[in-house]
Design goal:
Length: 171
C-alpha cells in the first residue's frame, strides 16, 4: 500500500513497518516495531496507513491499530480491552478509511468495524455474513458509503453511519 498525505509526503506500508518518504529531500523516515518498546508500532507488518483530517496518522498492522501524532511524535496503541464490549477485537487491520472527522471505518480479519475517535469505541458493522469473516478491501464510493470486499469473494455496499449494507456482488 502506498499513499500520499496532505503535505505531499509518501507513506509506504511494508513488512518491516511504515516508511515515510519526503520527495523534496528524498529522505526516508520510519515507524517500526521494536521489541519491548512501548513507543514503537505494535507489529512489524503494516498493511494500511491513513492520515486523517486532523493530520494524525492511523496505522493498520497485523496486530491491530496504532495512532501516530506527528506534531508530538507520540505513538499510541489502540488496544483491545476485554472488559469493554466496544473495544477492538484482536486481529489484522487491512484497510483504514475516514468517514468524517469523528469516525473511521476498518476492514479487518474480524469484519468491518466503525471506530469513534471521540469515544474511543469500536462497533462492528453487521453484514449478511458472520462478523468473523475477513474483509480485505475497502474503498469509498462517496462518504459515508463504501464498498467492502471479503474473503468469500463478496462485495457489500455499506453506509458506515447508518450501518445499512447491501450485497452487490457474489462470485
Amino acid at each position: 500500500m502506498i499513499t500520499r498525505d496532505q503535505a505531499g509526503m509518501i507513506w509506504i506500508a511494508t513488512t518491516k513497518g511504515a516508511a515515510l518518504f519526503n520527495p523534496r529531500s528524498e529522505v526516508f523516515q520510519y515507524l517500526k516495531y521494536t521489541d519491548g518498546h512501548v513507543d514503537s508500532l505494535d507489529s512489524t507488518n503494516v498493511n494500511a496507513v491513513l492520515e486523517d483530517s486532523e493530520q494524525k496518522v492511523w496505522v493498520g498492522t497485523s496486530d491491530g491499530l496504532d495512532l501516530w501524532n506527528p506534531a508530538t511524535n507520540k505513538l499510541e496503541h489502540i488496544f483491545h480491552n476485554t472488559s469493554a464490549n466496544k473495544s477492538f477485537p484482536f486481529g489484522v487491520v487491512w484497510k483504514v478509511s475516514e468517514i468524517n472527522e469523528r469516525y473511521l471505518i476498518l476492514a479487518t480479519d474480524s469484519g468491518v468495524l466503525r471506530y469513534d475517535k471521540q469515544l474511543n469505541e469500536f462497533k462492528p458493522i453487521k453484514l449478511r455474513r458472520a462478523e468473523s469473516i475477513a474483509y480485505y478491501g475497502l474503498t469509498e464510493i462517496q462518504s459515508p458509503e463504501f464498498l467492502a470486499a471479503n474473503s468469500a469473494s463478496e462485495i457489500y455496499r455499506v453506509n458506515a453511519l447508518t450501518e445499512k449494507s447491501e450485497l452487490v456482488f457474489d462470485a
